[in-house]
Amino acid sequence: MRATLRRLAVTTLSALALAAAPMGAAVAGADPAAPDTVGAVAAAMNPTSSGLRANTDEREFVSLTIDKVTPTAVTTSSEPFVTVTGSVRNVGDRVVHDVKVRLQSGPAISESEQLRSMLTADQDAYDTVGEFTTVTEKLQVGQSSRFTLAMPLRSASSVSLGITAPGVYPLLVNVNGTPEYGGQARLDDARFLLPVLGLPRDPSIRGADRPEGAAVPPSITDPLAVTLMWPFADKPRLASGIPGSSDEKVRLVDDELADSVADGGRLEQLLAAVEFATGDSLDRDHKLRDSMCLAVDPDLLITVSNMTRGYLVVDDPSDPTGPAHEGTGQTAATEWLERMRSLTSRMCTTAVPFAQVDLAALQRVDDPTLVERALSAPAGIVDGVLGITSRRGLTWPDAGVLNPEAAGLRGLGPTALLADNAVAEETTRSTVPLAGTTVDRPLSAALFDVPAATALAAVGATPQTPTYTPSDVRYDLSEDSRTARLQDALGAIAWPALTPPQNAAANQDHGLLVVPPQDWSVDGDEARAVLGAVSTLMRSGLAGPRPLADLLDRPTAQPPVDLDYPAQAAKDGAPERVQTGAATVAPEINALTETLVNDPQSALTPRAYTAPLSEDLLRALSTSGRRDRDRGAATAAAETRVSDVEEALTEIYASVTVLPPGGAYTLASEQSPLLLVARNDLPVGINVRLQISAPPEMTITDIGDQQLPPRGSRTLQVPATVENAGKLVVDVALTTTNGRELGEPTSVSIRTNTYGKALAIITACAGALLLLLAGRRLWHRFRGQPDPADEGYEAR
Q1: pLDDT per position as a tens digit, 375-394
Q2: Which tens digit of pLDDT belongs to each residue from 613-656?
Q3: Cα(625)–Cα(671) distance, rounded to whole angstroms?
Q4: Which residues cross the membrane (predicted)?
Q5: Which residue among 253, 405, 532, 553 has its CA within the 20 to 30 Å range from the CA of 494?
Q6: E strand or H helix that includes residue 188
Q7: Alpha carbon of 592 to those of 31, 609, 709: distances in Å?
Q8: Which superfamily is assigned to 656-752 in CATH?
Q9: 224-578 adopts what CATH topology?
Q10: pLDDT score, position 671
Q11: Domain 2-213 shares a fold with domain 656-752
Q12: DSSP string, 538-549
């Protein structure tokens, strides 16, 4: 938005200059000591500052970057100057002449909303103006030039920033220049916040006995109660669609996590910053440690824990079961995990929902197994991997907001960590009860500060604008340098400590819950700067620790408040197509788990075998990466995960089948059993059922559920009765106990030597005739008469 205004102003003034003067003529610039008027022109043309493009013919000539601000926070012992170093780069299509910069400041921030809105305000709001300093007389296309600006905080005898009391002040660096064929104009600017925790002496006033030049300390009569969440999370890295195993290495889609947990990596630096800042030599009274709670994603721990046993990295992420190579991070993962165990053993630690899952999407999918794995299981995972007992009772949605339907999910709470604008009623309380929750399971909300959290989310290599950030203060963060974004965060953290509460109720609950994003892209310097800012507030008496346990255990006697779910949450959440896919596949995983056999002698249980597939669905529902500029990549990855799980289930079901006989099957008698062979290629046992479709002349007896051993086969005897001789065809299929078809159906050709009813009649008739003949012989013998049948026999 700010770049839009700048380009519009430059284009307009350049056009006016060309209309008023011949080609190449210079236009007289404004008085260097006075504010330029370009900001006013731009504001007049776009008074709403909405960030929408007002002119398609926008042109950018130079880009201003702030590299360093000294000091990052002013104290009574600081130097009485603010020094800003940076660079100006020609990003246009022509030479820019007479490039100059100056420093400006605005009044101290008086409302929390100004912590964000002043960063998009017009230049006129920065009404204390320094003198221009020439950077270069000519800046060629593509060329950069560095500058350093220094300005007194206050001065009785010279131009200064006019800062006379502690507070948080907005500063602006303004660059003017004359593009070739145009006139002098403001070409770019950069804004940032400067926290002034205490004011050093005014160097222009000599004499220690002169009170007007004395240092000005802050008021510490009402210290701020600080609770700081420190997240350890990462985007999903495990390859999708691969069930659990007791002997195979896990597969990752890339090896970036190896760099992240190695020395100097993001996750290693997040860990190192806490180790250093809470060490006994620096945090002697443990105030910083007491104020902090480490928030750990169980998905990250599962991944790193698997890396410690060796792992593979797939060559093609779209082919998770294809060619792969050995990962490089086994040693780094082992060392990082050991350091995490050591750190979490002495600090508050809690688990966040699995893989930063979208709770609203989780509720819509409505699968109890996914809900349990997302909300109830994480604490056990964190405890098991780290060897600790983590803090229960807190649910921190990655989005920072919660819709009323998701508030009813089992496994939540009893406290949800939400943005302070995620509830409909404005409140000064840090913990409030939520309306609409059940009597037997009430839910409260611990509310964190939106300006501070928004500023923290912008810090790092991949700046984010959180879901809860109001629409009127959302803008493109890529316009700001990392240094400027860090300064904004430091200012937002300090502001509540430097600003007295507005009313008595707020005074009773004068606290700050500091909440960065879960997947935070800060480096080591930025992490240490944030922790240093909180530590400095405590050492100066401006703040004190409020442990998370104290915050969660506070009574919430005030009336319940309603949830406020912003429209932005739908855009930042899991796509509808992914939700539909997960809702279709999740019951299939549950059905498979139910039919598998739990063998006490095997390390691989049915739950462990299917858990990665359920977890893949949670990863697909993740909000990770969906607040970045390239949210399309996160959507594509989520859709791929659901598709891979579907394919994995198909392969699993195909791995259990009944084997077709090599030729025709011959029954020795009408009641000979039918012998069939079923094979299970899965690493776990499974209960199956035979589904046999036989012709009317054949009767099959149901043998019920049958258990197949892991990676083995079993011969099944099926009692059968055949009434007629000849050739029969029987269709045989294998299913799970809950009816899911397994493998490929087969047909069995059966030959039988039995004659059925005809044979029975012939046999009966022969038996009757035999009895008749035997009876006749006995009758004649009884009467002493020769049997006529013996006539001629005796003569011979």
Answers
A1: 999 999 999 999 999 999 99
A2: 999 999 999 999 998 777 889 999 999 999 999 999 999 999 99
A3: 65
A4: 755-774
A5: 553
A6: strand 185-196
A7: 78, 10, 15
A8: Immunoglobulins (2.60.40.10)
A9: TIM Barrel (3.20.20)
A10: 65
A11: yes
A12: HHTTSEEE--HH
Rounded Cα distance between 668 and 135, Å, is: 103
Q: Is the separation of the CB atoms in 503 and 488 below 8 Å?
A: no
Tokens 């400027």 found at: 484
The pLDDT, as a whole number, for residue 664 is 60
- Least reliable range by pLDDT among 51-55, 224-228, 398-402: 51-55
The single-letter code of the amino acid at 230 is W
**Is-contact 614 585, C-beta < 8 A?**
no
Cβ atoms of 265 and 349 closer than 8 Å: no
Alpha-carbon separation of residue 212 from 81, 106, 158, 200, 215 (angstroms): 17, 22, 15, 12, 9
Question: Which letter does DSSP use for residue 125 in this model?
Answer: G
CA distances from 14 to 3, 24, 575, 577 (A): 16, 11, 45, 49
Q: How far apart are CA 352 and CA 622, in angstroms?
A: 12
Q: Could you please report the per-residue DSSP string of 347-369?
A: SEEEEPSGGGB-HHHHHHHT-HH
CA–CA gap between residue 600 and residue 187 (Å, rounded): 72
Of 8, 531, 491, give the one whose Cα is nearest residue 229.
Answer: 531
Collapse the DSSP code of 464 into the 3-class scheme (helix H, G, I; strand E, B; otherwise coil) and give the result: coil
The pLDDT confidence band at residue 41, using thresholds 50, 70 and 90, is very low
Q: What angle do CA 303, 382, 330 make, to 5 degrees?
A: 30
d(CA 480, CA 104): 17
- Cα–Cα dist 623/547, whole Å: 28
**β partners of residue 138:** 97
Residue with tokens 């507005």: 502
Q: Rounded CA gap, 636 and 574, in Å?
A: 11
345 CB-contact burial (10 Å; exposed 0-12 / middle 13-18 / buried 19+): exposed
- For 679, the 3-state DSSP assignment is strand
Q: How does DSSP classify residue 166?
A: S
| CB contact at 8 A, 116 and 32 | no
Average pLDDT over residues 191-204: 95
CA distance 512 to 544: 10
Rounded (10°) angle between helices 266-277 and 330-344: 30
Q: What letter does residue 701 receive in the DSSP assignment?
A: -
Per domain, the residue ranges of the chain are: 2-213, 224-578, 579-590+598-653, 656-752, 757-790
Other beta carbons within 10 Å of 717 = 12
Q: How far from 197 is each of 157, 282, 497, 658, 737, CA to CA, in Å?
A: 24, 20, 9, 77, 69
* Whole-number Å distance between alpha carbons of 124 and 126: 5
Residue 35, pLDDT above cutoff 50: no
Mean pLDDT of the chain: 87
Phi, psi of 481 (to 5 degrees): -75, 160
Q: Where are the beta strands (DSSP E) in 483-575?
A: 511-514, 543-545
CATH number of 2-213: 2.60.40.10
- SS3 for 537? helix
441 near 447, Cβ under 8 Å?
no
What's the pTM? Answer: 0.86
Lowest mean pLDDT among 17-31, 122-136, 144-158, 286-300: 17-31
Tens digits of per-residue pLDDT, 45-78?
A: 233 232 322 222 357 899 999 999 999 999 999 9
Task: Give the mean pLDDT of 402-412.
Answer: 93
Higher pLDDT among residues 344 and 438, named by residue: 344
Backbone dihedral region for residue 790 (phi beyond 0: left; psi -120 to 50: alpha; all else: beta): alpha
Please answer whether residues 94 and 180 qualify as being in contact, where contact means their C-beta atoms are separated by less than 8 angstroms. Answer: yes
Q: Per-residue confidence at 227, pLDDT binned at 50, 70, 90? A: very high
What is the b/e burial string over 116-146, where b = at least 16 CB atoms within 10 angstroms of the residue's CB? bbbbbbbbebbebbbebeebbeebeeeeebe
Distance between CA atoms of 128 and 4, rounded to whole angstroms?
24
